[in-house]
Amino acid sequence: xxxxxxxxxxxxxxxxxxxxxxxxxxxxxxxxxxxxxxxxxxxxxxxxxxxxxxxxxxxxxxxxxxxxxxxxxxxxxxxxxxxxxxxxxxxxxxxxxxxxxxxxxxxxxxxxxxxxxxxxxxxxxxxxxxxxxxxxxxxxxxxxxxxxxxxxxxxxxxxxxxxx
Length: 164
Hints:
Blueprint: E1 4-9, H1 18-28, H2 30-33, E2 40-45, H3 50-56, E3 61-68, E4 77-81, H4 82-85, H5 99-108, E5 115-122, H6 137-158
Parallel strand pairs: 1-2, 1-3, 3-5
Antiparallel strand pairs: 4-5
Helix pairs in contact: 1-6
């Protein structure tokens, strides 16, 4: 079957933990456990850059989950594919390469999966990112929908019919 990698991006702080917590919830879900063995791997990935390229290597589909601040309503979800953010408009982060630069580098090196989907959840403009800061309510409420969206992407790609 087609290998799928689900990668939660971010950090261990505040709303930036969204990708990590979503991956944890995904792996505990009945839908994930019902997938054929060996079809999907899920893990947290930090920081972005070479680690992300290494984590995606060999997959046909990579699903990246991350927090974002773009001015949209907190908790809203955007689904993008890699080409939509490879234009370099994302500023470089304090962690080194940002997501758009990492994807552009992977494309230039011909080292990306055939399909890369990015699920971004809008975090509040006043989000806190310190040790011990929890998820804000709108971000936490987005997690069940993200898990369902990831499972939907996987089943569509693999042509699976999942039981309700």
